[in-house]
C-alpha cells in the first residue's frame, strides 16, 4: 500500500552554506491494512518522511508509491488528485477556528466539489463515528484538545481515504486524551479497512497500537519490522527502545548469577523457572524487569538472580537457547546491568 524506495530529501542550509540531509536513503513498505509506526528522536527525519509519503514535500531522489500509483512520477495536478486517497492528521489539529466541528469536516468535501446536503450528511456520520455527534455545531475554541483531534480525524476521513497519515497526532494531548485517540485510530483502522502510518517519538504509542515499526536516526532506518518479530530479535535497537532491559546492581556483594531473559507468549518465564528451579534446584528471585502486552502479545525483559549449585547452569542455558529462549548470564565484572537486550 505504501512503498518508499531509496528516498532522499535534502534541504538547503538556512544559516550556512551547504545542505541538510533530512531523509537519507529510506526504503520501507507498509502493507494494506497495517498500522505502522515511525519512531525516533527529534531531528531524526520523522515528520519530513511522512510529508514525503503524500508529496507535501517532493523527495530529492527515490520513489514513493501509494496504492499502486507512483506519486513521484505524477505532475503536481495529478498529485493533488491522488492525495484524496490519503488522509492526514497533524499534531496541532490545524482546524479552522471560524468553522464549527461539522464545518471543518465538510471543508475537504467542499474543496472536492461535493454538494451541501451530502457534505452535511457525511460530516454528521463521521462526527458520530468519532464520538462527537453532539458537538457538531461547536467551534474549535469550545472543544478540548482530545475533541479537537477527533474532529481532525473525522476531517481526514471525509473523502474516504485508503491511507491515514498521523504526524505526532497525540503529542499535544494529555494521557487520557492520548489513550482515547489511540483507541479511536485503532477502531477506525479496523472498521474502515485503513492503512495507517503514525509518526511519533513515544515508544508507548507504538506499543499501544502498531503492528510494525521503523526506527529512524539522522534520517536513516536503523531497525524495522513487525513488533512480534522485532521483540524477539537479538541485537535489535528497536527492541531495546521498546522494552529496555532492567537495571540492577551486579556488584561482587551479591552471590549467585544474574540472568537476562526475554519473555514471550511462546517462551514464558515459567519455562525458564522450571529449568532453573525444577531441574537444577536453584533458588531464583526476580531482580528487575517487567512484562506487558505489545501488539496483542505478551513480551518482557526480566533480570533473574539464581543461587545454589551452578555447576550445570551453562549446559541448561545452552538447552534453553536451543529451544528459542533468549537468555544469558550477565558478566560478573560489571558494576551495573546496562539497558541492553537479552541475548547480547
TrEMBL record:
Keywords: Amino-acid transport, ATP-binding, Cell membrane, Membrane, Nucleotide-binding, Translocase, Transport. PROSITE patterns: ABC_TRANSPORTER_1, ABC_TRANSPORTER_2. SUPFAM superfamilies: ACT-like, P-loop containing nucleoside triphosphate hydrolases. GO terms for molecular function: ATP binding; ATP hydrolysis activity. Residues 2-243 form the ABC transporter domain. InterPro entries: AAA+_ATPase, ABC_transporter-like_ATP-bd, ABC_transporter-like_CS, ACT-like_dom_sf, MetN_ABC_transporter-like, NIL_domain, P-loop_NTPase. This is D-methionine transport system ATP-binding protein. It comes from Geodermatophilus siccatus.
